[in-house]
Design a protein that fits this description.
Strand order of the largest sheet: 9-12-8-13-14-15
CATH class of the largest domain: Alpha Beta
Structural class: alpha+beta
Radius of gyration: 22 Å
Low-confidence stretches: 97-103
Strand content: 25-35%
Number of helices: 9
Oligomer: single chain
Largest sheet: 6 strands, mixed
CATH architecture of the largest domain: 2-Layer Sandwich
Shape: globular
Order of helices and strands: HEEEEHEEEHHEHEEEEHEHEHEH
Mean pLDDT: 86
CATH topology of the largest domain: Alpha-Beta Plaits
Helix content: 25-40%
């Protein structure tokens, strides 16, 4: 039960990584559709250890399907792969397109009016669903090499990227007309329904913070930087578009750059950051890096 509480907090019924429902009180119950147990992410037969970072709560059926298969397996009709992330392993959806997605692509034909309108009518029915939107504002002072921007674009290639206009604030309600030496990159994901979506975007923010702090900044590719990650909740798309058309709350951030990562309350409560920070209603510093990657990058800097 300790791993359940660590993974899901006070929730009593959740979905495992394969999408099957599990209930807290059905631990080890093979007669319940919600029965679950604990499985090794990296199988013990492959050197996996019985440590929290290598354990996952999953439906008994999911556990049976996964078994000791490595690195790829099917569970609940979906393909997954076990990949190494820093010093541990994680289960991720397989990179290849699923059969359901292929079937959807085959059916959708914009040149066929029936197919196009059928697709449009499906979209009409989901406009009022609640939306969680993730935004990452990357602020860079005095960029010295555009390769840093290309690196950021590649890291966040699955998201929407824009470059909001920014004019420095000079006080007394005045904005300078002089060009700013600060570059702003806004990364946005307009649909993050799962906690895993928020965790994945946070992981990439930590990755970028690692490269900035251990390599780009020490080698003077930037004079200073700041990463601000916020998640907002909207009841429907109209409210989302109305709020985001001017870049959302992050576009209003002013002041100096602190060479660190900040995250909002909804990021904190939906990720492992809740074990380290509490809600305050404001962006909070979360200056974490991937330690081994940071050490390797620092060695590269020292070797120059």
């Amino acid at each position: 039960m300790r791993l359940w509480v660590k993974s899901f907090g006070k929730e009593t019924k959740v979905q495992d990584f394969a999408g099957r429902e599990i209930a807290k009180g059905a631990y080890g119950d093979r007669n319940s559709q919600y029965g679950w147990n604990v499985d090794h992410i990296l199988p013990q037969s492959k050197g996996g250890t019985t440590a929290d970072h290598n354990l996952v709560c999953c439906n008994i059926k999911t556990n049976d399907e996964k078994a000791d298969k490595f690195p790829c397996f099917n569970a609940n009709g979906k393909k997954f792969e076990i990949i190494r992330v820093q010093n541990h392993y994680e289960i991720k959806p397989a990179a290849n397109v699923t059969q359901q997605e292929k079937q959807f692509d085959d059916e959708l034909n914009f040149y066929d009016s029936a197919s196009g309108l059928r697709f449009f009518k499906k979209l009409k029915g989901i406009q009022n669903k609640k939306r969680f939107v993730g935004s990452v504002l990357i602020r860079i002072e005095k960029l010295q090499n555009n390769a840093v921007v290309d690196f950021i674009e590649a890291l966040f290639s699955e998201e929407n990227i824009s470059y909001p206009d920014f004019k420095p604030y000079i006080g007394y309600g005045l904005i300078s007309n002089r060009p700013s030496s600060e570059l702003r990159i806004l990364v946005t994901n307009y649909d993050m329904p799962q906690k895993d979506d928020i965790s994945e975007l946070l992981n990439r923010c930590i990755l970028l913070n690692t490269y900035f702090s251990a390599y780009f900044y020490p080698l003077d590719y930037v004079q200073s930087y700041e990463i601000d990650f916020s998640v907002m909740h909207f009841d429907d798309k109209n409210k989302m578009y109305d709020y985001m058309k001017n870049g959302g709350e992050l576009a209003q951030i002013k002041g100096g750059l602190d060479n660190t990562l900040y995250i909002s309350d909804l990021v904190i409560i939906n990720t492992e950051a809740k074990e380290k920070l509490s809600e305050t209603g404001k962006l909070q510093q979360y200056d974490y890096v991937y330690s081994q990657l940071s050490k390797n990058l620092k060695k590269e800097v020292e070797g120059r």
